Amino acid sequence: MSNPYAPPTSTDLPAASGEPPGPLDMSINPASVEDATLLLARLGAPPRLLRHVALVSEAGERLLGLAAELDLPINATLVRVGIVLHDAGKILVSAELDASGGEHEPLGQDLLLKQGVSPALARICLSHARWSEMAVSLEELLVALSDKLWKGVRNAQLEERVINEAAKALKRDPWDLFVQLDSLFEDVAAGGTARLEQSRV
């Protein structure tokens, strides 16, 4: 049985030996936000979960917009589809739609794998919450950060990881990116109260 906390292998994500996975250039399944949303609906996702996905995606698009401006070498589709699927396990653990808990994380990964979802996407059910315990890609960190910022939560450790990994990918000093990225994080988080109101389906 594979270890869900292990770094992705070459069959999952292209990665240099001993390093977290880098930019992804690969086919993923599902290959689009639309297909991923249809999968959630087919699995019985409640309106509350679909609304959550839409609001996290709103935050994610802000991050991806700046990533594009910076010419950051990432797989934006993986981020977008990962956001759609990150909480799939809450279909099975509906109590965690309204209360904190981690039971949905491994259950979500298993559920998606059984549906033929790419391992690179299915593991986001774990990594969006357990990014500090796993070897993760920048794409996975962006999913995790979107899942914080949408509701106005700032996480200094996570944000620092994103800035450092972005700087590494761009071969720049993290301080060159700090002000620009930190300002964006604050701006996205500032809309958290309004998004939380919208999340009440």
Give a summary of the structure in a few sentences:
The chain is mostly helical. Helix content is 58%, strand content 0%.
Question: How many DSSP H or I helices?
Answer: 10
Oligomer: single chain
What is the terminal separation in angstroms?
38 Å
Mean pLDDT: 88
Domains (count): 1
- CATH architecture classification name: Orthogonal Bundle
Radius of gyration: 16 Å
Beta-strand percentage range:
under 5%
Q: Give the overall shape.
A: globular
Structural class: mainly alpha
Written as H for each helix and E for each strand, in order along the chain, the element string is: HHHHHHHHHH
Low-confidence stretches: 1-25
Which bin fits the share of residues in helices? 55-70%
Tell me about the largest β-sheet.
Answer: none
Number of DSSP strand runs: 0
Please name the CATH topology: Hypothetical protein af1432
Name of the CATH first level: Mainly Alpha
